[in-house]
């Protein structure tokens, strides 16, 4: 499948009074047409900053992109000025934000908020834009759109508001949809509805989605591929099955081990000890080393490159080096791998190099 | 669980704006018991009344009607100051948002020792410092942290301070209202493990309020599911997950995404439609099998019993 977006060696820094924070430190990934790429990681891992860079929403002048390329449609988005970016934002690439309570303007009727982009980008007349806005509301499953379009955000519930936000994002048939924790503020049943809606729309429109979340359950539900971020870098990337059933990076092990599953009767969750590093002074070597229970000497000295596990699966950990000692993943993660192997036959093992 | 009841809640009601047009029946006639030493999970979606229940139990709200008995004594109603103080010591709360629940202008030592001073648990400043340092170590922080301010800590560390504050007065019962929702996954596991360890060491009883069902299942012995101010189902946590009876519980369980792509590809969501119940009969809370309670009509009750037999 063709790559619609390529991010190469992206760096983002923020100047603060305390010094320069290196929020994103060399991120590489591709996005294919019609796929959903989930980016997971803890707060501060740089996942939101990465998507903001794609949208040209890094606050200036404190935030900078000192290095790296964001290639989209033959252009490098990192080099565009504000005016050129405005042509792309909302038309080719649009965004769904986390909190539907704050991402809508409370003083504007939703009709105006949906029509804004249509009039700006697609040069529709007011009347045409209105007809299209009603269609969009119907598409995102809002009942009686002809009535609802004249209402204000406060007249909608949280789930309905997020539907409105999605309608705005979809207004100009974008090629890429960036969803930054779109369901975190919602209840589980509403979350399920919104996820179903997004998948439904993706099938119809072939939009590519970058989905940011820290909820691994949601990742398992929506993603085709998963990128795991830690301390401003992608430490592991692969298909959803690679990441959940054959994880290689100790941080991915930690993430998977700290989520209880419903059939889990264990006494202790495998918590990752410690806290993420301070990105004002990123550590030498593997950034995860101080929290890694099986840390090796080289982890503290040299940064691991991306090792290839399979065609689709890469991980940045010295454990994949040929001279590395064989370290077993924690029991909870191993069971997950075994459970998968027994359900699916030998596919699991066959994936290894 | 043995039958030693620490907390008995009977027909508890908490209405807001009583007798006005906008009356809200946030908690509408619920009854359950919490046994000593157990973790009782309370789950439901936002607005179902789970937090209000917690706050009413600890007397942050005055109950509209009903009883909350703690160690056999009613919590609500007129009380002398001394009795009230004793309640406040035995029942503590851990809040959801560690950024909002700690006073930014107080040091960690001041935050933790406030309760110690109120209840006269320490006599001298040396004793106070020692207690605070002990508590900090108990929750996995350093004693050097005592002189710092909340803004110097991360979310997980702040939640640990909140836990230390709750533990300071040696309570028997702790209400944890969404204590981990604001934290990252890896930090959530740290805090949950800490709560479990403390429970084993000190024989604490928890009321754990949350919307994250997988975490609640993990930590709780028994779970009650709330919907629109009512408890619709109550059972041992394994039983509730394996054999949910009430259609709302089923829909809630079917909506949780699990970190397992294969399961996710095959998960079928069940929707709950309240109109499926016989509206002519007021449902009652009935025990279908030992310890498994469901809010149901007589007809549904017969059906559930058949399923279970």
Q: How would you explain this protein's 3D organization?
A:
The complex is a heterodimer of chains A (353) and B (309). Chain A has 353 residues and is an alpha/beta fold. Chain A has a domain of 107 residues. Helix content of chain A is 35%, strand content 22%. Chain A contains 13 helices and twelve strands. In chain A, the strands form two sheets. Chain A has an eight-stranded mixed β-sheet, sandwiched between helices. A four-stranded antiparallel β-sheet of chain A has the order 2-1-4-5, covered by helices on one side. In chain A, α3 packs parallel to α6 and α6 runs parallel beside α7. Chain B is α/β, with parallel strands linked by helices and 309 residues long. Chain B has two domains: 239 residues, Rossmann fold, CATH 3.40.50.300; 63 residues, no CATH class. Chain B contains eleven helices and twelve strands. In chain B, a hairpin with a 2-residue loop joins β4 and β5. The mean pLDDT of chain B is 91. Chains A and B meet through α7, α8, α9, α10 and α12 of A and α5, α6, α7, α9 and α10 of B.
List strands and helices in order, with pairings.
The complex is a heterodimer of chains A (353) and B (309).
Chain A: E1 3-16, E2 19-32, E3 36-40, H1 47-55, E4 63-72, E5 75-76, H2 82-88, E6 93-96, H3 110-122, H4 126-139, H5 145-148, H6 158-170, E7 176-180, H7 188-205, E8 208-213, H8 216-222, E9 225-230, E10 233-239, H9 240-245, H10 250-257, H11 297-301, E11 307-308, E12 314-315, H12 331-344, H13 347-350
Parallel strand pairs in A: 3-8, 3-9, 6-7, 7-8
Antiparallel strand pairs in A: 1-2, 1-4, 4-5, 9-10, 10-12, 11-12
Chain B: E1 5-16, E2 24-35, E3 39-43, H1 50-57, E4 65-70, E5 73-74, H2 81-90, E6 91-94, H3 108-118, H4 125-138, H5 155-168, E7 173-177, H6 185-202, E8 205-210, H7 213-219, E9 222-227, E10 230-236, H8 237-242, H9 247-255, H10 261-266, E11 284-289, E12 292-296, H11 298-308
Parallel strand pairs in B: 3-8, 3-9, 6-7, 7-8
Antiparallel strand pairs in B: 1-2, 1-4, 4-5, 9-10, 10-12, 11-12
Helix pairs in contact in B: 3-4, 3-5, 4-5, 5-6
